[in-house]
Write a structure and sequence with these properties.
The protein is mainly β and 123 residues long. The protein has one helix at residues 94-101; strands spanning 2-3, 6-12, 17-18, 21-22, 28-30, 42-44, 62-68, 71-74, 81-83, 85-91. The chain has a 4-stranded antiparallel sheet with strand order 1-8-9-6, with no helix packed on it. It has a 4-stranded antiparallel sheet with strand order 2-7-10-5, with no helix packed on it. The protein has a two-stranded antiparallel sheet with strand order 3-4. The protein starts with a strand and ends in a 22-residue tail after the last helix.
């Protein structure tokens, strides 16, 4: 288990809820738990593209940059983390999100392979 200041991304429903919990940009939330992925704590991913292994890639959803400020547990696949204290730093627009998930090593976006990525499910 790591502690403190891990940056990441979190997806929310269109009304800024997640699993029945209401969130707001700029606020910090804390639970009195020992975080355990898939069991308890505030979940997030360190790579934006990994979020969509757990949530639908829908523009109605909200996406935020977050910082884990408490204890952090990482899943065995290292795609999901959770913490007992999370700050919702800022909303990420869908245009910015598309740039984030479609850049970097091996074009880490959704369904993008090859060297001419245009349209949906690019190969």
């Amino acid at each position: 288990m790591k502690e403190g200041h891990v940056k990441g991304y979190k997806v929310f429903n269109p009304d800024w809820t997640c699993r029945g919990f209401q969130f707001e940009v700029g606020k910090t939330y804390e639970e009195d738990v020992i975080p355990s992925c898939c069991n308890r704590g505030f979940h997030f991913c360190t790579k934006a593209s990994d979020c969509f292994s757990y949530y639908d890639f829908r523009s109605e959803n909200k996406v935020a940059e977050v910082v884990a400020l408490g204890d952090v547990d990482t899943s065995t696949k290292d795609t999901k983390c959770c913490t007992n204290k999370i700050q919702i730093v800022r909303e990420i627009t869908w245009q910015e999100l598309l740039t984030i998930v479609n850049t970097g090593k091996d074009c880490t976006g959704l369904c993008n392979t090859g060297n001419r990525n245009t349209g949906n499910c690019n190969t």
